[in-house]
């Protein structure tokens, strides 16, 4: 037994961070965030080049078959640099959806295309994961109608995976007849949500091979929650690092402000809240692969706890920067808004904790 | 990351669970550590030591079980006891702080002499650190130990010496080299509490009890070999002990014990027959704390793993005391709220004080503030986290007025 990262994971993490740091100067981030689609073709190709597209796709389908912990490390790095790139839904939840409810034919058809970076699936749940907004879908005679709001990774998606209230999931092509996609620019301009209006759309695939479709959907949601928790961890860590660096350089009253206890304690508080979150996220990610009996509860707890810690760190780190933190100039707000986004998507903390209570058998669903 | 249990580990887990099932009837209530272990506690300790559920990796020649250092074994044992709400054995200053310090820097003779009786609960230690004039500024200690005829002769005063009134021994930080600079003039001595010249005066605290004492030294003589490391190295040794004290104070298994106890209370039907666990506002408070305890426990596993691999966890280790003690107090706070007005019952005196649920939680709720202050207060911890953990600059030294020190 060993609680920690492997050497390979450390290498992967460092190379991904080096890539993102090189590609995402503040100037570039500003430009890429402007349209609010959460997508840039160059960045997407670059991420594919270092193996992100097929991270979770098994080797026989053209991916690298890595673990959910590797995916969480990637999510953390993407959050750290506020990368405008589809990930949680397109590269993690979608793969998990095919694993948990796709048949062999569907896996053969779709997983290699995900790994190749040519299929980007946007994904949303109808009422299963605490999403707010419209969620009224019905499948009639093989055709899907109704409305579903807030699908993740919606910008420039090639496909949409819409979960029905019974846990089955319908895969739709972005341009198919009867599909209206409204891209909602979110407060976090690095990731977009999509609203779907559907009028008798024929799905290209229906994921329903699981014996327990609701449980299969739950696993997809759990994986997404772990990714959002990891994203917040990365974004919050970025804000803390920058607050510490700023406190070490900004001079007032003839001293760097980090030597004032008022400022130092804000940094110490952030570190104290955030440091245990790393192990919590690692554990939650690991549990998705290895500890099925705990997976749902720890995913919900990680999501809720990171949402609470993230909110505190986002405020404190901004405050440490003083008036500069409040400006657009430093771009600290990209991470701030990333944290804002992560908290609400796939259920806020109250909803996640409720789910944790159900998963532990404390109360009935 | 690999948390899979091997055949051997699964067997250990089953063995521990079976042990708990078989013996839980004779276990003392968990917690405590604020009075001298009674016969029941000592018997339980003996049983745990025999089975290797306590001091598992301490060598046999020092009185331990002699198993190889194995992180997962320790985690399995701690987890099983905390989940079952059964006492994991004695956790006092001698066992959790002095023993690891001696194992790290003590002489062979010191390890053989002190470790065994201490982990059995036969020798109780107290800590002679703080003085009226040196609390947070611990290295300013003035208690003097001069050498005379093969002995240290100690004069001075210590304060906040918990359990001094029933302790057998003290580990004492005192000044042996007054001509040296502040930090370089200290030594770490082992002093029998029955030595003539030691006077212990109880210090009544807000709990209404005297968990602490003032300890006065008047020409107290101890042989010069009763020192850990050498003269002038006391600050180094004291910091090793403080490292263990801070880990003890932030122990996430204790937090897990508390969380479980509160959850059980919340499943008891109230006067109207309903359970608090079924009420969303109460359940959410418990769940928030469960998330935090979970983060603390996983963090602890990470630290143990790093420790086993000889990696210094740096920032990760420095936050434990501050994080754990604040969380502990919030757990005690929830417990009081769950008990409500029925939890106001308070009879802290006498041997049965800690057998009463309400009194125990009230004591914990107040005592936890003592833990937040002691062992380096939260503000001192934040200085350490900020300066050693994050690399922020120290506060500039204040100008010392003439005649001051």
From TrEMBL, chain A:
Keywords: FAD, Flavoprotein, Oxidoreductase. Residues 6-118 form the Acyl-CoA dehydrogenase/oxidase N-terminal domain. The keyword Oxidoreductase applies. Its cofactor is FAD. Pfam families: Acyl-CoA_dh_1 (PF00441), Acyl-CoA_dh_N (PF02771). One of its GO terms (molecular function) is acyl-CoA dehydrogenase activity. Belongs to the acyl-CoA dehydrogenase family. This is Acyl-CoA dehydrogenase. It comes from Dankookia rubra. The lineage of its organism: Bacteria, Pseudomonadati, Pseudomonadota, Alphaproteobacteria, Acetobacterales.
Automatic annotation (TrEMBL), chain B:
Residues 6-122 form the Acyl-CoA dehydrogenase/oxidase N-terminal domain. The keyword Oxidoreductase applies. Residues 232-389 form the Acyl-CoA dehydrogenase/oxidase C-terminal domain. Keywords: FAD, Flavoprotein, Oxidoreductase. Pfam families: Acyl-CoA_dh_1, Acyl-CoA_dh_M, Acyl-CoA_dh_N. GO terms for cellular component: plasma membrane. InterPro entries: Acyl-CoA_Oxase/DH_mid-dom (IPR006091), Acyl-CoA_Oxase/DH_mid-dom_sf (IPR046373), AcylCo_DH-like_C (IPR036250), AcylCo_DH/oxidase_C (IPR009075), AcylCoA_DH/ox_N (IPR013786), AcylCoA_DH/ox_N_sf (IPR037069), AcylCoA_DH/oxidase_NM_dom_sf (IPR009100), Mycobact_Acyl-CoA_DH (IPR052161). Belongs to the acyl-CoA dehydrogenase family. This is Acyl-CoA dehydrogenase.
